[in-house]
Design goal:
The chain has helices at about 1-20, 35-55, 100-105, 110-130, 140-160, 165-175, 195-205, and strands spanning about 65-70, 75, 80, 85-90, 95. The protein is mainly α. The longest helix has 22 residues, at about 35-55.
């Protein structure tokens, strides 16, 4: 029963993204980009988007580094955790467990990985804009980062870079990463319920970066 419910939910996510992207049923997904190429290409493309966005507002911008790890190690933000990806403001680095990313790639697809990196990049943007210094709950920061990932995805679509099935992969990835049932919205590590995360992503996808400041 649990497996059947999961399938129903994921199909619902797929339909939502298909309607948003295409207005009807989506075409069959395109083959995934090889993981090694993806981990090189995605950060470069996300960086290009934010370079242009900051430049258009005459704001200073410093691209974060994106580094994998294979075992726990110490960062300025504390010890890294396995099965995790996180942005560390003191070193302006997005750290990610390579095996965690590889598993998402294998189970969901390439754009789930790209949107995860775009989400973490969003935290770098928050730091550089001074948003992270504000008095916000964790869930507010996380949903805004999801929105930023959606804004990047809008850019990728307009540049002709999105492939059939990419939005759906992002949606399933967000759904899987949503908070467990019963997690209080004010919890220190709350990221948002699955559909809240999808909604935030779609706000950015439909409205661009500006939409992420009006949530």
């Amino acid at each position: 029963m649990k497996d059947q419910m999961t399938i129903v939910i994921l199909l619902t996510v797929y339909v939502i993204f298909a309607v948003v992207a295409f207005g009807s049923a989506a075409p069959a997904p395109a083959p995934d980009m090889p993981l090694a190429k993806l981990l090189d290409y995605a950060p470069q493309d996300i960086n290009k988007f934010w370079q242009q966005t900051f430049a258009s507002s005459n704001k200073r911008y410093a691209a974060p580094l994106v580094l994998p790890y294979y075992l726990p190690y110490r960062t300025p933000c504390g010890d890294s955790l396995m099965n995790n990806a996180f942005y560390c403001p003191p070193d302006n680095i997005i750290h990610y467990d390579y095996n965690f990313i590889s598993r998402i790639y294998s189970q969901v697809g390439d754009y789930a990985v790209a949107s995860l990196i775009a989400h973490e990049w969003g935290h770098s943007v928050q730091t550089q804009l001074g948003i992270s210094k504000g008095k916000f709950f964790s869930i507010q920061m996380e949903l805004q980062a999801d929105c930023f990932a959606g804004a990047y995805t809008q850019y990728a679509r307009q540049a002709g870079e999105l492939e059939d099935g990419d939005l759906e992969k992002a949606g399933v990835g967000l759904f899987n990463a949503g908070d467990r049932i019963g997690t209080p919205w004010f919890a220190p590590q709350a990221h948002g319920k699955p559909m809240e995360r999808i909604s935030a992503f779609l706000d950015g996808y439909k409205g661009g970066v500006k939409a992420c400041f009006s949530r």
